[in-house]
Amino acid sequence: MDLLLKTIQQYVPVSSNDEGIIRALFREQKLKKGEHLLAAGQICKNIFFIEKGLVRYYATFEGEERTSYFNKEGEFVCDYSSFLPQQPSQTNIQALEDSTIYTISKTNMELFYEQVKHGERFGRLAIGEVFVSAINQIRSFYIDSPEVRYQTFLDKFPDIGQRIQQYHIASYVGIKPQSLSRIRKRLAGKH
Questions:
Q1: Strands 27-31 and 99-105: what pairing?
Q2: Which end of the chain is least crowded, N or C, by CB within 10 Å?
């Protein structure tokens, strides 16, 4: 849980009293590679924090899985479009590796906001980052070439590229695996 506490402290100060509250509100969970934190159609009832491991967000469209995001150690995971209004999700969140996560329910998150001194400020700052990231990703699909989107992936996730199957990366970039291979060859030729 030390990584969770350090991550929260990057946003707001955490007193020893706050630390005790946080430890009481989060629960540890283990996932095997391939297991889902959330399946499309379910309501997202928790926010997750990855202590160890890697997950991907994807949706199935016309029988094809389309990856929209990845989260790794030290990051929060949630389908906020399901969690906030408590409506069924259209997103799947799947472990790409055996993972250790900490989970907090919507009810306990409300207690976090109330009981942790800077809890609400933490929530505003964290959700603001999620919003900006989502807007930038949407914008990129409209204006950037696949090569630029792949380079953005490398810049954004420099430490996990080797941990992810190439077809998941291709799906995230919005291209077929064969096109990703060509882009990688062109980029390798430039260096």
A1: antiparallel
A2: C
